[in-house]
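Q: What would this chain look like folded?
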Amino acid sequence: MQENQKKPPLTREQLDELRDDLMLADSLTRIENTLMVLSGKGGVGKSTVAVNIAAALAASDKMVGLLDIDIHGPSVPTLLKLEGRKATGMSERGLAPVNFNDNLKVMSIEFVIHDQAQADEAVIWRGPMKHRMIRQFISEVNWGDLDFLIVDAPPGTGDEPLSICQMAPPRSQAIIVTTPQTVAIRDVKKSIKFCKSLGMPIFGIVENMSGFVCSECGTTHDLFKGGGGEKLAAETGFRFLGKIPIDPRMVIASDDGKPFVLEHANTPAAQAFEKIIQPILGLAPVRMKKH
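A: My prediction, written as structure tokens:
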């Protein structure tokens, strides 16, 4: 009989890797649903869509995390007027995210940069460094128990979307954002193929900048050839979540750091967001309120 050979002790590096894996697994078990907001095209208003979906879900009494994984050009801190805020409270569970309100927690690379001067500098990182930071955003941030984690990813199919899709838990799906024009639809199709190749389910497609709401009469007018997102959904067989028209007040609200859905609830654009979140709300069970 062969004598049992003792395995060599784990190295410090192996122990650190094991600890990271356990922390990541623990964090993921506390997140009921993860929704990646993706687009193959820049300039489609993806961050605005992500912020307003997160704010609308939080306003519907859901516990929501909003994670901005755009390492090079984070927009979420500006859209929620959180510039200059810092993630604090290092503990066994890691950093505390920044609270926008009681139901909405936010994390961005801007919250871990030491000062504003650094925040204005270009972040020049290769893929492995970005992957490590995104992993830490989940495993070393104390998100607590979330009904939804909304992830705002940079456009395209590069390092950041790849990293978050590879480490996401089973209850993860993508929301694809496009504008109506053909040039946008062509690039957005790449995001759909990207999700399919990674086995990432697609929850639905949003058509942003779908018409223009006149501030005088409230009528919606087409600026571009309309219906591109709806046609894409029909062509690919995915759910069409809805059309969001352009409203000049959305630009003002974004610059002021106030989610449009909270500031202008009765407008066509805000009502479009409310329609979009209805099937999303169906993913999360009703939580019992603590007395």
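The CA atoms of residues 209 and 246 lie 5 Å apart.
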